[in-house]
Structure formats: structure tokens, C-alpha cells
Amino acid sequence: MSETTRGTVPAGGPAGGDPYLELRGVTVKHADRTVVSGIDLALRPGEFVALLGPSGCGKSSLLHVLAGLAPVAGGALRHRGDEATDGLRGRVRVGYVFQDHRLLPWRTVGQNIEIAMKAAGVPAAEWDERIERFLGMLRVGEYRGSWPMRLSGGQRQRVSIARALAVEPDVVLMDEPFSGLDEVTGRAMRQELTRLHEVASVPTLFVTHSIREALFLADRVVILSHGPARVLKTLDVPLARPRRHEDPALARLEAETVADVLREWDLTEGPAS
Ligand SMILES: Nc1ncnc2c1ncn2[C@@H]1O[C@H](COP(=O)(O)OP(=O)(O)OP(=O)(O)O)[C@@H](O)[C@H]1O
User: Fold this and answer.
1) Ligand 1 pocket list (CB less than 6 A)
2) Among the CATH numbers 3.40.50.2300, 1.10.10.10, 3.40.50.300, 3.30.450.40, which is that of 8-92+170-264?
3) What UniProt keywords apply to this chain's record, in alphabetical order (predicted)?
4) pLDDT tens for each residue of 1-12
5) ipTM of this complex > 0.95?
6) DSSP per residue over 157-214, as a string?
């Protein structure tokens, strides 16, 4: 990877500006087993950061801790400079998109979004307008009264993103939301997500194991090691916005980054003897 086209920056992010969220030596355990080991990371206001790591390295576990769904085993978490080691829930509105959509099957699409807004303290008088607006934005407005099981996988994932955004979150945490979708739907969803981010600029942490997805979406990509996850490297993504999948610069960047990431993950084949 050439330093003329790519900037390599410290894991804490580029200099300047207070972080929205800051992790210092964050460690996560399941029982006695360490699955995330001493992560340093900063998410700046309005920034989109991708956490790129191999399957099973601990990405979801880290996101759970940040949201406050699981406890931190070590290290510290700060929100706008304030100690927040027990996670973001209860401090700010968190828009969390799970890998599987997690819609309640016995509630309609609209009711699923209502439940999330109620939990987030959104006044009931605003529910109707927000449901219309966010389902419309994600192009699934006609399914408001439908049962989730009547929707395709892509439509369900659109609803789950609408649900996360309808609380008008202060921060968005996304856990491989497009990994179960076909290529065409995944592309459309990524395009949609960049458009939404460009409009709203909500700080976003996006977990993925797809290099191309990380480069297409993010301002910075944090490369994690095999589990227990630690930060190997952080890369700036020098692509202009709005981004296009067809941009030749994206393909070039992907080729460079694949080589770089495979080297970091130590998966490259050695020279033939
Ligand atoms: N509730 C749990 N109890 C015990 N171990 C767990 C639990 N959840 C996850 N693990 C283990 O922790 C490790 C990290 O899992 P995690 O789901 O965080 O990884 P990941 O990087 O998100 O994986 P993937 O990319 O496949 O979704 C794995 O070895 C997994 O088996």
C-alpha cells in the first residue's frame, strides 16, 4: 500500500477534534475467555468508522459492550470526554442494527418501530410521522401494516435500519447488517446507507468482514486481528463522497487493501519454493 495514496493513522484517529466516543484498552470476556484485548479507538463526531475483522474475532462482542448490552472486563470508555464505561445506553440514543433483523414476528412492521421509539422515549405524538418518514426513506413504506415474515430478507433489513434511525439516534452501531443479503440488494443498501449518512452525519461504527464494504462506506477502517481482537492498523479512506460502486478508484483501493489486510491477517501464501 503506497503512502502517497493512503494515510496510515494511529488507532486513536487523526489529530484534532474531540472524540465522540473513545475506547482505551477495552477488553471483553465471555466467562474467563478474553475475546477482545485492549482496544484503543476513537469515533469522531459525524464520522463513519468500519471495524474490519475476520469471522469470530470479537466484533459483535465489542459492539455489545459499547452499546451497554454486556459489561466491559477491562479498560475505559468515554463519551464526549465523560466516563461511560458501562456503555452508551441510557446516556444517548443508540441506533443498533443487528446482523439478523430481530424484528418481533408477532408485531407488524409499524408496531416494531413504535416499540423501539417507546423504549427510546420518543413522544407518542411523533410516532406516526416518524414511521412514515423512515419507512419511506428506506423504501419499504408500503409494508407498514405487514407482518415481518411476509417480507423478503432485504426488506426486513431495511425495516430494521428504519427502526434504528426512527429513534433519531445520536450514534449508530451496525453489526454486519448486509451480510445475509444477495449482491444486488447489498449494493443498494450500502448506497442507501451512505446517502443517509451524508445527510444526517450521525457518528457510526459499522462492523464487517468485507473489505470492499468497509472501503465503500467508511471514513476510516480499523483492522482487527484474529481473536482475541486487537487493533492492527487504522486506515484513512481517501475516496470522495458521494461514493459509487463503479468508481475505479474504489477498485484500486480494494486491490491495495486486500493485499495489506491479508498480510496483517497473515493469510498470504509464501513464495513458491
Ligand atoms: N454469549 C457468548 N458466550 C460465550 N462465548 C461467546 C458468546 N458470544 C460470542 N462468543 C464467542 O466469542 C468469540 C467472538 O464472537 P463474536 O460474535 O464477538 O465475533 P465476531 O467477530 O462478531 O464474529 P462474526 O464475524 O462471525 O459475526 C467467538 O469465539 C464466540 O464463539
Assistant:
1) 30, 35, 53, 55-61, 209, 227
2) 3.40.50.300
3) ATP-binding, Nucleotide-binding, Transport
4) 333 333 333 344
5) yes
6) HHHHHHHHHHT--SEEEEESTTTTS-HHHHHHHHHHHHHHHHHH---EEEEES-HHHH
